[in-house]
């Protein structure tokens, strides 16, 4: 099976509205999700959620882990719960086929070798400013960052440039930070503050904005 066929098969699984809702719920969660939580999150029974969650696992869109949520071990601790999280793999397809990822890698390599980091960051910041986002949270959500508030900071659950950031971390993360800075409204600030998962940038809003 070609990579395009595999991607099409994976994305076709999301044609079912229940599976699509479950995928979005799990993908947006900050941590692993139980079947019960997923079922409650999309308003279906636990049995229905379990069936569709496992279909998403089979398609490579979700991953599973097993853990005792009580923290107890040994006899009488109960069976581990099956937990779900978004899979690390990416699925993309274009009709007709295109190879934008190849071009982006080549361009990133040239920019890095030429030492044009500052120029790239300036262009990214200008592009963010040109967008003129009155609501930074909504703008980041539209761009695929999956923002959420955590202890007064706006964290970004997804890195839209994940594959490139792994190959060219300094270049791409610097560009990403500059682009976000340009996008933010007055009173907002962004800084590098990486977590194990998600985007490496954390954002702070004006006083009183965000979770208490």
Automatic annotation (TrEMBL):
<dbReference type="InterPro" id="IPR036388">
    <property type="entry name" value="WH-like_DNA-bd_sf"/>
</dbReference>
<dbReference type="InterPro" id="IPR011991">
    <property type="entry name" value="ArsR-like_HTH"/>
</dbReference>
<protein>
    <submittedName>
        <fullName>Helix-turn-helix domain-containing protein</fullName>
    </submittedName>
</protein>
<dbReference type="InterPro" id="IPR036390">
    <property type="entry name" value="WH_DNA-bd_sf"/>
</dbReference>
<dbReference type="Pfam" id="PF12840">
    <property type="entry name" value="HTH_20"/>
</dbReference>
